[in-house]
Amino acid sequence: xxxxxxxxxxxxxxxxxxxxxxxxxxxxxxxxxxxxxxxxxxxxxxxxxxxxxxxxxxxxxxxxxxxxxxxxxxxxxxxxxxxxxxxxxxxxxxxxxxxxxxxxxxxxxxxxxxxxxxxxxxxxxxxxxxxxxxxxxxxxxxxxxxxxxxxxxxxxxxxxxxxxxxxxxxxxxxxxxxxxxxxxxxxxxxxxxxxxxxxxxxxxxxxxxxxxxxxxxxxxxxxxxxxxxxxxxxxxxxxxxxxxxxxxxxxxxxxxxxxxxxxxxxxxxxxxxxxxxxxxxxxxxxxxxxxxxxxxxxxxxxxxxxxxxxxxxxxxxxxxxxxxxxxxxxxxxxxxxxxxxxxxxxxxxxxxxxxxxxxxxxxxxxxxxxxxxxxxxxxxxxxxxxxxxxxxxxxxxxxxxxxxxxxxxxxxxxx
Amino acid sequence: xxxxxxxxxxxxxxxxxxxxxxxxxxxxxxxxxxxxxxxxxxxxxxxxxxxxxxxxxxxxxxxxxxxxxxxxxxxxxxxxxxxxxxxxxxxxxxxxxxxxxxxxxxxxxxxxxxxxxxxxxxxxxxxxxxxxxxxxxxxxxxxxxxxxxxxxxxxxxxxxxxxxxxxxxxxxxxxxxxxxxxxxxxxxxxxxxxxxxxxxxxxxxxxxxxxxxxxxxxxxxxxxxxxxxxxxxxxxxxxxxxxxxxxxxxxxxxxxxxxxxxxxxxxxxxxxxxxxxxxxxxxxxxxxxxxxxxxxxxxxxxxxxxxxxxxxxxxxxxxxxxxxxxxxxxxxxxxxxxxxxxxxxxxxxxxxxxxxxxxxxxxxxxxxxxxxxxxxxxxxxxxxxxxxxxxxxxxxxxxxxxxxxxxxxxxxxxxxxxxxxxxxxxxxxxxxxxxxxxxxxxxxxxxxxxxxxxxxxxxxxxxxxxxxxxxxxxxxxxxxxxxxxxxxxxxxxxxxxxxxxxxxxxxxxxxxxxxxxxxxxxxxxxxxxxxxxxxxxxxxxxxxxxxxxxxxxxxxxxxxxxxxxxxxxxxxxxxxxxxxxxxxxxxxxxxxxxxxxxxxxxxx
Lengths: 415, 604
Description:
The complex is a heterodimer of chains A (415) and B (604).
Chain A: E1 2-8, E2 15-20, E3 26-31, E4 35-41, E5 47-54, E6 60-65, E7 73-78, E8 83-89, H1 93-97, E9 102-109, E10 116-121, E11 129-134, E12 138-143, E13 154-160, E14 165-170, E15 181-186, E16 197-203, E17 208-215, E18 224-227, E19 236-241, E20 245-252, E21 265-273, E22 280-285, E23 291-296, E24 300-306, E25 312-320, E26 337-339, H2 346-349, H3 379-384
Antiparallel strand pairs in A: 1-26, 2-3, 3-4, 4-5, 6-7, 7-8, 8-9, 10-11, 11-12, 12-13, 14-15, 15-16, 16-17, 18-19, 19-20, 20-21, 22-23, 23-24, 24-25
Chain B: E1 10-13, E2 21-27, E3 30-36, E4 51-56, H1 64-81, H2 89-120, H3 124-152, H4 159-170, H5 174-184, H6 194-203, H7 207-220, H8 225-237, H9 249-268, H10 276-285, H11 289-294, H12 296-299, H13 302-313, H14 322-333, H15 342-351, H16 355-365, H17 370-381, H18 393-409, H19 415-423, H20 429-437, H21 445-457, H22 461-477, H23 481-491, H24 494-511, H25 517-521, H26 531-547, H27 551-563, H28 572-584, H29 591-595
Antiparallel strand pairs in B: 2-3, 3-4
Helix pairs in contact in B: 1-2, 1-17, 2-3, 3-4, 3-15, 4-13, 5-6, 6-7, 6-10, 7-8, 9-10, 13-14, 14-15, 15-16, 16-17, 17-18, 18-19, 18-20, 19-20, 21-22, 22-23, 23-24, 24-26, 26-27, 27-28
């Protein structure tokens, strides 16, 4: 992997969350500077900041996009005990020319008495529903019944988890076999209530959410939680960021016909990684749930992948190298991107993320009898280049050892 | 099967490393990384340095030349999937071999293009990058070729060696270059590379060419004429197995042994003792391993050594015997200083007919799934994975294809190729496609329609609905009511259609005219999607009739609109107002009905 480009985000303080929109063409960033910025990706891949505005009166912890079926809608949550919903307004034509757009606040949700730690939209098949969780231990689910009027939100459910909540994740499955389900994580230091992850499920009959399961084996503070995208499986996969990275499999058990409670879930641990050697703060799945990323106290982001035998391994690490870029403090809308750091040589460019642990290192000087002799670019390359030698120095091997440009297969001609 | 425990690659991010955390966000085809601090304190203060870094994995899909590889191999892949299943395997083998050759020729073509750029560019970095890609493709082709020989063609003893000889010759073409140089010189026989060329030819079993070269030396040394004649005879008489001929393998073996004895006698007789070079050649012909190893530089690789050794000591080698020779040759060739490298292990696994190991090692060593995905797919079609008693044979194929195709999906045009790959993954292909096709950015209507067509062809109704809804919403936000309406109709979204129809009607009330008349006039049966939409269509029809002065029909229609109760309440006044001029019309036969208050007591 390599850094393809660096964008000067120009926040005046720490960035707490960055969120791509559904199609990956826009992103939102939020910061302790109390603002949210929206960025648009142009055709050539450059990011432009198209909006930047103050959203709260405290650090903004998370920002998230609604599904584009509902339009261009953002939600943010903050230390100031509120969550807010924002909608983009199609601006004046000269605004468009300047590449700017306007976002207006549609509603402020003020029910929480403490810092709101996470905000997430429910899966789109449930309608336009927003969920928040706070350090006051309450999960709140709001609904906008009229998608065309985003200023009307009603608090549909208030679920007390009894523990300070740090994160929520909805099960994205829209299968009829699975009623709506979300997981809540807690970073509460209270040891009375053992399990720090709770799973809630919607009950059609009572029209309420009821707790389906508490993961009792997770006793340390949980900082992040993420359901994996469902790929037609009958079971659910949940990743947890706690003192290590944990992946659980939740298998719904067959329901008795008389049972009215939530589905019984069999909980199995699939993998556990403590490579971060410390607290893990974030976990997140990629779109196809083939890769999980985690961020920890060791300042690294680790990528995890399962092979076809379902064995999980770390396949890549992102690490701060201790030499941050110095930002230019330009205008917020100024496009200041630094293209691809040359820290990565082509050597790293060949390192794959998913598979490449090591590769054919063409830069090693070939040894006598080494099969590299013929793997290096053909001699014609060496002869025709005017510049100083690009090829590695060859010790003791005549350069004519390299095989010549290969001919097309004669047999292929009659195909 | 052991998984090597290798440390994963570390990618450096230009960010602070001490006391700071690295935040991240998954994107299509990349991951964003940024400096942050997660400790939840009351508004953690940090430095203002805020950069967001776009981290990408694969460069391959962005390379224009490699893209041709993806395009063309996609074509071959689709063709392979449609080969009829009911033919017996032995009829299919030639087809599979030809498909394998197709793939390889595509690799070759790509390599040549890359090389041309690498040679002609002035940019050293580009040249190196392309050079690297060429060397990787070289390795890939080498491996693929060997797999074709051993697994797909599955040559038996006799032909096996001939195929291996071809394989080695194909990948050691520098001999010809050297030969050309030598032949073009003033006095070839005196060229300092002359003997290297002759020996190389012999090592590759190209005896005819060796003989032609030797003639030049023979003319320079008339005194040694007899020696050269003898050598020429030996070279001419070396038997080569002819698979298409009438000679059986046993008969060939006998002939070959006789020849071998003859060569050995020459050595014992010291027939070539006075000519060092001819002596060397003679020793090679008799299969003297030490002599072969003396020529490591000319052989270049242990597998060349392997094939040459077999050629001159055991040309009737059986496939099952290969791995003994392979292992020992590798050990002999690489002295203790050299450690086998990934390529070596892969080739060794191939000689051991351990297909699974080959695939696994290739997956680890290469950063693009292209190679393993296509090769595994082909091997699976040859029913070779199953024969290895792996119940996850077909899962492996699907796993690799899904990985490869998912990688393609993030590319703005290659994603269309990926669709076909998903189509041929019976277990998870559909759900992967559903998940990923939704994310294709709908930059233009044309692109959206393209995506829709793909979804419609596969009856992915939810995706169709969702995409249409997104487009409808986008149009509505930009006040393009006609576009929004047509998208909602396509989405079969009655609720949204109602909403937009309301807007149209509001527009009419406000401005007195309709926008997007074309669309409304040509709604056809789509009108029935929602009541409001039906009303809109019919109301417009009323206006048309009125405009054409077909008042009686207009009045009839207006009446039916009023009585059918599909008119929105807000519109009743308007309808009544519209009725007024009709009441004044003398020709209207129904004006008495219109004037009758009984029809709508509830409306007033």
